[in-house]
Structure formats: structure tokens, C-alpha cells
Amino acid sequence: MATKRARKTQNQSSSIPVDRISKLPDPVIHHILSFLPTIDAVRLSILAKGWRRIWYSIPILSFSDSDFSINDRNLFYKFVDECMRIRKMSMRFISDSVITSFKLDIQNCGGSVHFDKWLSFAVKSKIQELELKMNPKCTNFAYYCLPGDVLKASSLVDVKLTCLKLEASFAISLPSLKSLSLASVELSDKVLHDVLLGCPSLEKLVLKECFDFVNLQISSSSLLFLEIINFEKRGRIPVEAINLQSFLYVGKGVCDISACTKIRNLSLSEADWLEEQSLEDLIFRLPLLESLTLHYCYGLKRIKFKSQQLKRFTFSKTYTLDVEISIEAPNLVFFSYKGDRKFSLSMNSQNLLECKIIVKESSNNHDLNWYINFIDFLSTLNCSKNLSLLVYSEEVCISFS
């Protein structure tokens, strides 16, 4: 009887929930909670007495007014103000109460006075990462202008800005900044020049849908990675970055990267200015090029080049013109094509490991000779690891079977 009672007691105790999270070291808990928005981290503080002040030491502050209704904007401002007040107070008494990252996502209009105050506190706290998304859903909103204090923050390493305005009547100084991403940001040619001049350690720059440039120029000796996305203006875009290793470009302007001889990864999309000779010259001037991607470059009717270093080549097209592709790259290990069947392909690549071909074709188009020639090409293709062939047409599938 006593044995049964003991077993019953043991079974009951084993079914009691065990709080394993609270037994974790504080730095681990801080790290876990840092992935949550600050409002959720504050809510979790009521779970246990030991958690009441746990959010005081979370290194990331992340706020979004989407957590509040549009009629509760003042409540959102008060919440962030109170969080800032508590964190400012805790930094005086708690040794590990350090803020390394500040994130703000705004979807409602107004509040610039509050934003200035919050950013001032974040900069004084010596944050390393700043992410601001000012993307109000209201119409005819005025872009929020980034305060000058941010453009002089010596501690910043990574900055991401969306739907803001950058103006500077003073010398910009961001000596530690390594990564800068600007999406739908209003800034002039001069401001961009001043930014690059004031960021001697900048390694990565992303410009996405920034339409206010008149004569875009990129000049930086420290830059390693550059992305220019959805640039609609035509004209020449000189890029002087002697240490650049990776360049991704989507746009209409003619990119002059002749000074960037250390590029290893190059991706060009919608570059209708690119033709056979200009592509061949471009590849010739990039002796270290290892990866080349060409998407929807409508001026290319013939692709012919030689490269000793190229390892990956990706090409896709939507236009209906015939394209002749001739590649001599002995070290090529990956090739990908996506488009219609109006292409011919010749490759001299003994070390090819993976080949991916996607053909999307109307079922009304028939050309038995093309199918036969393509099957002959596939039979001679020296692809030792993986050959992937996807065809959107019954007739083509039957021909390949």
C-alpha cells in the first residue's frame, strides 16, 4: 500500500510543469528575448518575479506603431517614452544594461518630435545598429528628415533606412559604419557624396529605389559590396571603388565599373544597354570574376566570352529574340538558363558539376530540329553532379523523353 502511495506521489510530481527557461543564464535569456519586439518582452516580465526587470538588460529595442491602433498613437508615444525613461535609469545602476540596437517601424503619420527624442537617446547610448522604417500608409505624407546627431554617431556600424530624407549642411562623420542600406530615401548627389566621404570604413552600400539623383556617382576605396536596385534614369553611372568585390545592379543607366577590377561577383538585370561587345569587354576587364548573373538584358542577342576564373553563370530572358550563347570557361562548375527555346548553347567547360535549364514555351511552337540539336547538346554535356531540366510544354517533354 505504501509502495502504491509512493508511486502515485512520484507520478504526480513528475506531471508538475517545470520552468526550465528561468534556470537559463541571464545572457541566454537576454539573447532569446532580443528577437522579440520590446512590447512583447515587457509583457513577458509579468511571468515571474525574477523576470520583472529582465527586459532592462535586453540589448535590442524594437518598436512598431502597428502594435497600436491608429487612434492610439499617443498611447504608442507614451509607451516608448516610458521604455526610454526606464532604460535610461537602469543604465545607471545595472552594469549589463547596454543598448546595441534600435529599431523603429512607423506606419502612421506624425510624431517627428518624438522620433528626434528617441534617436537622440539611442545615439547617446552608443548603439551599433539602427533600423528605421518610416512608411506611413497615409497619402501626401512628408518624409521624416534624419536628425544630424545620427549622421555624427561614431558608434554606428550597421544602418538601414526606409522612406526617409537625408539632408546635411555639415560634415558627416560615421567612422565605424560598415553597412548602409537606403530604400526609398530622398537624398541628393551631394549628400550621397558627403556620406561616402564621411564613412571611411564602409564595406556595403545598398541603394534601392532612390530616385532623386541627377548624376549618380559612387566613389569609395573601402567599399566591398554594392547594390543599386530599380534605378530608372538613363545615363552613365561611374563607380570608382577599387576594392569592390560584389556588384548587383538593376536599372537602365550605363554602369561604368572599369575601375573595379577586383570584382568577383557581378549581377546585372534589365541592363538593355548591354550588348555582345560591351559584355565581352566587361568580362575581359574583370580577371577575378567568379560569378556572373544576367537577367532580362534585352540588348543581348549573342553572348560569347572566355574566362579562366568564372565558376558560375546564370542567364535568364523573357524577350522573344534568338540568343546565341557560346562560353569557354574551363573552371565553370554551375550554369543556369531560364527562358524560351529561342536560344542555342555551346559550352567548353570540362569541370561543370551542375546545370539547370528551365524552358517555358508555348505549345503551339514546334521545331523538331531544335529539339534534336538540344538533345545532342545535352548528350555531350559533361555535367558530373546534377542536371536539372524543367520544361513547360507537353510537346517538348515528349521530345526529351
What does this protein structure show overall?
This protein is an alpha/beta fold and 401 residues long. Helices cover 25% and strands 28% of the residues. The strands form four sheets. The protein has a 14-stranded parallel β-sheet. Strands 9-11-13 form a three-stranded parallel β-sheet. Strand 14, helix 7 and strand 15 (291-295) form a beta-alpha-beta unit. The termini are far apart.
Question: Brief overview, please?
Answer:
The chain has 401 residues and is of the alpha/beta class.
Descriptive tags:
22 strands, three-stranded parallel sheet, 9 helices, 14-stranded parallel sheet, elongated, 401 residues, 25% helix, disordered C terminus, alpha/beta
What's the count of strands?
22
Report helical residue fraction: 10-25%
User: What is the strand arrangement across the widest sheet?
Assistant: 1-2-3-5-7-8-10-12-14-15-17-19-21-22
Number of helices: 9
Characterize the biggest β-sheet: 14 strands, parallel
Strand-pairing-aware structural class: alpha/beta
Distance between the termini: 75 Å
**What sort of overall outline do the alpha carbons produce when their principal axes are compared?**
elongated
Mean pLDDT: 84
Topology:
Elements: H1 2-14, H2 26-33, H3 38-44, E1 60-64, H4 73-93, E2 101-106, H5 112-124, E3 129-134, E4 144-145, E5 158-162, E6 164-165, E7 179-183, H6 189-197, E8 204-208, E9 218-219, E10 225-231, E11 236-240, E12 246-251, E13 254-256, E14 265-269, H7 276-284, E15 291-295, E16 302-306, E17 312-316, E18 323-328, E19 334-339, E20 343-348, E21 354-360, H8 368-380, E22 386-392, H9 394-400
Parallel strand pairs: 1-2, 2-3, 3-5, 4-6, 5-7, 7-8, 8-10, 9-11, 10-12, 11-13, 12-14, 14-15, 15-17, 16-18, 17-19, 18-20, 19-21, 21-22
